[in-house]
Amino acid sequence: MSRKLDDLTKQDWDSLFPIELVKHRLEWKVRFEKERQLIDEKIGDRLVAIEHVGSTAIPGIKAKPYIDISIEIPKESLFNKEIIQALEGLDYHYFKQSGKGADYMVFVKGYNFNGLKEQVFHIHMCPCGHEMLEQVLFRDYLIAHPTRAREYEHLKVKLDSQFKNDRTGYRMAKDQFITDTMKRMEEKSGGGR
């Protein structure tokens, strides 16, 4: 019986794929662009926007070597079977993301059961107005404010050792920094984003 990503527990994910930060690599931008083209060929007519987000999109800071992609879609395309099948055709695995805020679609590729061997991609596909799309604003702010980006990097390095085998804890431990950064953006823009 072969294992599937759906069969993995939180403990499995944490032990198979621990948090590991690496120096920024210029190749991440190129890899995103190649992947963006593949996605655009498959479902481009159904997309509002596709963006490279996460730390690999912020020049000069350490990151987990995963390419995070934010895709904005019209609300009526959420959980669309044709979109799911098209991305599965590109070797993505689909998860419905539930929990805090509105549900959305997550797609991952590049994982295997011996740890990371390939380039890992994470897609967060959300309808217009979804809070996950704020990742684009966060990325843009850190690119425009290198000192704040370095502060984010320092936090991530500290959390890397503390949460090496706790992916959820690592993500949650960054929440306050992200919230504070979003507040700075609001203040700078006079209250509106």
Question: Can you give a write-up of this model?
Answer:
- The structure is a single chain.
- With 193 residues, the chain is of the alpha+beta class.
- It has a single domain (5-188), classed as Beta Polymerase, domain 2.
- It contains seven helices and five strands, in the order ααββαβββαααα.
- It has helices at residues 10-16, 27-43, 81-88, 134-144, 146-162, 167-173, 175-188, and strands at 49-53, 66-73, 93-97, 104-112, 115-127.
- A five-stranded mixed β-sheet has the order 1-2-5-4-3.
- A hairpin with a 2-residue loop joins β4 and β5 (115-127).
- The longest helix has 17 residues, at 27-43.
- The mean pLDDT is 90.
List keywords for this structure.
193 residues, alpha+beta, Beta Polymerase, domain 2, five-stranded mixed β-sheet, 5 strands, 42% helix, 21% strand, globular
At CATH level 3, the topology is Beta Polymerase, domain 2
Which structural class do the helices and strands define?
A: alpha+beta
Number of domains: 1
CATH superfamily: Beta Polymerase, domain 2
**Given the C-alpha coordinates, what overall shape results?**
globular
Flag low-confidence runs.
none
Number of helices: 7
What is the terminal separation in angstroms? 50 Å
Strand and helix map with partners:
Elements: H1 10-16, H2 27-43, E1 49-53, E2 66-73, H3 81-88, E3 93-97, E4 104-112, E5 115-127, H4 134-144, H5 146-162, H6 167-173, H7 175-188
Outline of this structure?
Helices cover 42% and strands 21% of the residues. The chain is an alpha+beta fold and 193 residues long. It has one domain: Beta Polymerase, domain 2 (2-Layer Sandwich).
